[in-house]
């Protein structure tokens, strides 16, 4: 186990397997910025499956037990099920999960399950088709995502978590419908406060619906009660329905930051380590990897990066100024949330 400057251990890693995506969510990859001519990373730039697997072995030695595959959209990375199978065989990974927009799940869900993916989280911001299309740059309708979720269920993923980013005046009027729908189907809904990740999504504090308000609005229709977090480092505030019909999580990274429990490292598609979702510069692992570094040398770079870590952006954002969010930050599609 390794500890950072604030005594936080390294427990989980999010691996971004591509910077590309088939959606253009306004809060992540707005279509005006990520147009036809946008230069994504080349195949040579991104880590190979062998490189990702090798780094995962080193990370597990340092205490990582949970691996989440993300992106961009992880399912647009060719043969993602092969990487999944390779990571599933890394001893010590207790939990192998993926966050996806579900568009390609009808083709991929069974192969992912067979490869050893344990759990899946699907992003779906609204069940209102017009609202959802506006949010994803009109790349998909609700029906396509529902088909992806159905394929995941059929493949045996259960329970499925559903992520929804809540923005005032955009989709907040549809959160109760989402909660009800998820409750009826046994999915675990996770509402996420709209975050000021990156510098491209036009974030404003007025667009954030505070977690407390999200909980109150659902509670008014579907009564809730708070429940304990299930493990240290869990980012969601958890509530269960008073009628025993399941639970929801709310990720209050803006209004109630949880940096003190943040045990997460992020690896970008081109092999940079980020110790915070709101980091500016990553630490490059690709160059040493490709220059022939030994496992011990790679381990040392990771240890140095983690043990020097002091990040607590969300707490600083709240404590400092209203415009702390304007400094330069890595974009979400690079490090995957
Ligand atoms: N493409 C996949 C997907 O959308 O599920 C995985 C990558 S995506 C960057 C991971 C998660 O980050 C998604 O659930 C997405 O909704 C969330 N996300 C992206 N931008 C966000 C923002 N500005 N604030 C809060 N959550 C955000
Ligand atoms: Fe793509 Fe996911 Fe970002 Fe939406 S949130 S643009 S689906 S990477
Ligand atoms: Fe972790 Fe950074 Fe988020 Fe704080 S702001 S919880 S340190 S990723």
Taking all Cα atoms into account, the compactness measure Rg is 19 Å
Task: Report the structural category.
Answer: alpha/beta
Low-confidence stretches: none
Percent range of helical residues: 25-40%
Following the backbone from N to C, one meets helices and strands in this order, namely EHEHEHEHHEHEHEEEEEEHHHH
- Please list the strands of the largest sheet in the order they lie side by side: 7-8-9-6-5-4-3-2-1-10-11-12
Number of helices: 11
Instruction: Summarize model confidence as the mean pLDDT.
Output: 94
Quick structural overview:
The protein has helices spanning 49-61, 80-88, 105-115, 129-135, 142-155, 175-185, 211-219, 286-290, 295-307, 313-319, 332-335, and strands at residues 12-16, 66-70, 95-100, 119-123, 161-166, 188-193, 224-227, 237-241, 247-251, 264-267, 272-274, 283-284. The protein has 337 residues and is α/β, with parallel strands linked by helices.
Report on the structure:
The protein starts with 11 loop residues before the first strand and ends with a helix. By secondary structure, the protein is of the alpha/beta class. The protein has helices spanning 49-61, 80-88, 105-115, 129-135, 142-155, 175-185, 211-219, 286-290, 295-307, 313-319, 332-335, and strands at 12-16, 66-70, 95-100, 119-123, 161-166, 188-193, 224-227, 237-241, 247-251, 264-267, 272-274, 283-284. The longest helix has 14 residues, at 142-155. The relative contact order is 0.16. Helix 1 (49-61) runs parallel beside helix 2 (80-88) and helix 1 (49-61) packs across helix 9. The structure holds S-adenosylmethionine and iron/sulfur cluster (SF4) (2 copies). One iron/sulfur cluster binds next to loops.
């Amino acid at each position: 186990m390794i500890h950072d400057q604030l005594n936080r251990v390294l427990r989980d890693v999010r691996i971004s397997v591509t910077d590309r995506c088939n959606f253009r969510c306004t809060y992540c990859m707005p279509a005006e910025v990520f147009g036809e001519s946008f230069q994504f990373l080349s195949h040579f730039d991104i880590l190979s499956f062998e490189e990702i697997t090798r780094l995962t072995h080193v990370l597990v030695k340092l205490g990582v037990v949970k691996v989440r595959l993300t992106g961009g959209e992880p399912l647009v990375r060719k043969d993602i099920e092969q990487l999944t199978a390779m990571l599933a065989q890394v001893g010590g990974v207790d939990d192998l999960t993926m966050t996806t927009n579900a568009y390609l799940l009808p083709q991929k869900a069974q192969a992912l399950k067979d490869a050893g993916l344990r759990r899946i989280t699907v992003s779906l911001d609204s069940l209102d088709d017009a609202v959802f299309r506006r949010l994803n740059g009109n790349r998909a309708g609700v029906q396509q995502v529902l088909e992806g979720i159905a394929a995941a269920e059929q493949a045996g993923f259960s329970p499925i978590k559903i992520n929804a980013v809540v923005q005032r005046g955009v989709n907040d009027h549809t959160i109760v419908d989402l909660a009800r729908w998820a409750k009826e189907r046994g999915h675990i809904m996770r509402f996420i406060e709209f975050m000021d990740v990156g510098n491209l999504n036009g974030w404003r504090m007025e667009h954030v619906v505070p977690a407390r308000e999200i909980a109150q609005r659902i509670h008014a229709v579907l009564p809730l009660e708070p429940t304990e977090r299930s493990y240290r480092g869990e980012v969601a505030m958890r509530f269960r329905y008073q009628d025993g019909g399941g639970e929801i999580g709310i990720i209050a990274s803006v209004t109630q930051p949880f940096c003190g429990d943040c045990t997460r490292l992020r690896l970008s598609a081109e092999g940079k380590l980020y110790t915070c979702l709101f980091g500016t510069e990553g630490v490059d692992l690709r160059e040493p990897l490709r220059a022939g570094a030994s496992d011990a040398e790679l381990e040392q770079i990771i240890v140095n990066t983690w043990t020097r870590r002091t990040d607590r952006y969300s707490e600083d954002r709240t404590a400092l100024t209203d415009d702390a969010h304007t400094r330069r930050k890595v974009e979400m599609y690079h490090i995957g949330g």
